[in-house]
Amino acid sequence: MTETLQCVRCGHVGPNVPSLWRGFKKGRIICKKCYYQEYALANKEVIAEDKRRWIKADRERFKATQKRWTSKNTKKILARVRKYQASKINATPKWLDIEQFKQIEAMYINCIKGYEVDHIVPLQGDQVCGLHVPWNLQYLPMSVNRRKGNKHE
Ligand SMILES: [Zn+2]
Fold this sequence. Notes:
Layout: E1 4-6, E2 13-15, E3 21-22, E4 30-31, H1 32-42, H2 44-57, H3 59-72, H4 74-90, H5 98-109, E5 115-119, E6 137-141, H6 142-148
Antiparallel strand pairs: 1-2, 3-4, 5-6
Helix pairs in contact: 2-3
């Protein structure tokens, strides 16, 4: 038995303690972290569904967790907001005229409670990036919009 093992995925070397490694049966030894990463990637929908169910079942606990995360990560959140704002600026074409700017503004001003202005093609999409133009905006119920994230369907 060797003293250490190496992850075939990330190259991490660690002590040969079975609880730290996965894939013995398949003969493809990977570290626990990579295992969970692969699992999460392969089971995105299952995990999202689990999370939704958990949130529904224990709304108070979820809110508390979220609050804790928010207060611990204010700088991270700010960075995300800034990144989003930057992408919005880059996504606003120079040829947009004043009327079209007003249309965009009006979309935000007239947005009713419980709804959000959504970019039909997300500004920070995985594959394509949409534009911050009137015809790429729509109203979506907040809950739907949050679930959509950066996915473009
Ligand atoms: Zn690894």
